Amino acid sequence: MQTRRDFIHGAASAAAAVAFIGCDLLDARHAHAEGVSRREVAVSGRRIRTVDIHAHCAFPEVNSLMGVKIAPPGLAQIPNRLKQMDAQGIDMAALSVNPFWYKADRDLAEKLIRLQNEKLAELCAQHPDRFVAFATTAMQYPDLAAQQLEYGVRKLGLRGMSVGANVNGEELANPKFHPIWAKAEELGVLVFMHPVGTPELDKRFQGSGDFRNIIGFPLDTTIALSHLIFQGTLDRFPGLKVCSSHGGGFLGSYSPRSDAVCANIKDRCTVPLKKRPTEYLRQMYYDSIVFTPEAMRHLIAEVGVSQIMLGTDAPFPWNRTAVDHVLATPGASDDDKRAMLGETAAKLLGIKP
């Protein structure tokens, strides 16, 4: 059985077989030209180490186990990705892999996750000052997923777990997943949640605008977070640290309606909660991908600045000015900006000063 140190020797092979991809397994075609200088971010003259909580990658040989094809890694080799990070002012990225294996049988899922987590560890070992990574797990087999999480964190040095917002249509609040949340709480690690879509609405998402992504993805996140709140999962696991992508979906913009249902139509809230639904928003975390200064100001008002971390969705080109987006946050103090740019993420991910 390999351990974390063993991966240092295999890191070179990982560099040749990783593709940095964005949502929907799209390749990165936006590499900067040779010679791009590294942007150093400072707040009031103090250098800040920026940490991107939302950055994607994939490994072609892992994907091939499920018959999933991605663009040739030559379009998105590590040197190009590092140049992108340098140009944007991103010092470190927390890598996650969007789940494509939730329908795999147990034997395949075990093999796939072992290989994928080992490759994530290899990549981080080669570039310890630029990358950390979230372990992947076979959520469809909760007992196996809990084992994979513990192995990934304790043996491979991965910093948490990435999950989809649903598992083959099953909600993350389903009691069958409790062993996974118990293990994440025990380990004290961050769970990064990314949407996988709402295929039951595909008929309504047809037409111009890519509704499957711009509406379906945030909606998937909104539903998942709402179930974790209303089904009492966050009461059952109060130490669970969840970070949702895309600013938490739509919940931050319309969450008071959740309080209203419990206050005014009480028979619809069948699971007793320890606090108002909106209060749970302030114990979860969110990336900064909300696009405008006013949206950022409002998200902070709803969840608290301490709960927000820099996110790019790299290399998918949703947000190439993430650092400036945080720096332009209305009303944010210097300490607030430093926290969002990297200090909060570094603490949660165990990144040493």
In short:
This protein is of the alpha/beta class and 353 residues long. Helices cover 40% and strands 13% of the residues.
Amount of beta strand? 5-15%
Secondary-structure arrangement, i.e. CATH architecture:
Alpha-Beta Barrel
CATH topology heading: TIM Barrel
Number of helices: 15
End-to-end CA span: 31 Å
Low-confidence stretches at least 5 residues in length (pLDDT < 50)? 1-16, 22-33
Spatial shape: globular
The major sheet is characterized as: 5 strands, parallel
Q: What spatial order of strands do you see in the largest sheet?
A: 8-11-12-13-14
CATH superfamily: Metal-dependent hydrolases
User: What structural class do you assign from the helix and strand content?
Assistant: alpha/beta
Helix content: 40-55%
- What is the CA-based Rg, rounded? 19 Å
Could you give the count of β-strands?
A: 14
Mean pLDDT reading: 90
**For the record, what CATH class applies?**
Alpha Beta
Quaternary structure state of the chains depicted: single chain
Total domains: 1
- Order of helix and strand elements from N to C terminus: HEEEEEHHEHEHEEEHEHHHEHHHEHEHH
Describe the 3D structure.
The structure is a single chain. Helices cover 40% and strands 13% of the residues. The chain is an alpha/beta fold and 353 residues long. It has a five-stranded parallel beta sheet with strand order 8-11-12-13-14. Strands 5-6-7 form a three-stranded parallel beta sheet. It has a two-stranded antiparallel ribbon with strand order 1-2. The N terminus is likely disordered.
Outline the secondary-structure elements.
Blueprint: H1 6-15, E1 21-22, E2 26-27, E3 42-43, E4 46-47, E5 51-56, H2 60-63, H3 78-88, E6 92-96, H4 106-126, E7 131-133, H5 142-154, E8 160-164, E9 166-167, E10 170-171, H6 178-187, E11 190-194, H7 211-214, H8 216-230, H9 233-236, E12 241-244, H10 251-254, H11 256-264, H12 277-280, E13 285-287, H13 293-303, E14 308-309, H14 322-327, H15 334-349
Parallel strand pairs: 5-6, 6-7, 8-11, 11-12, 12-13, 13-14
Antiparallel strand pairs: 1-2, 3-4, 9-10
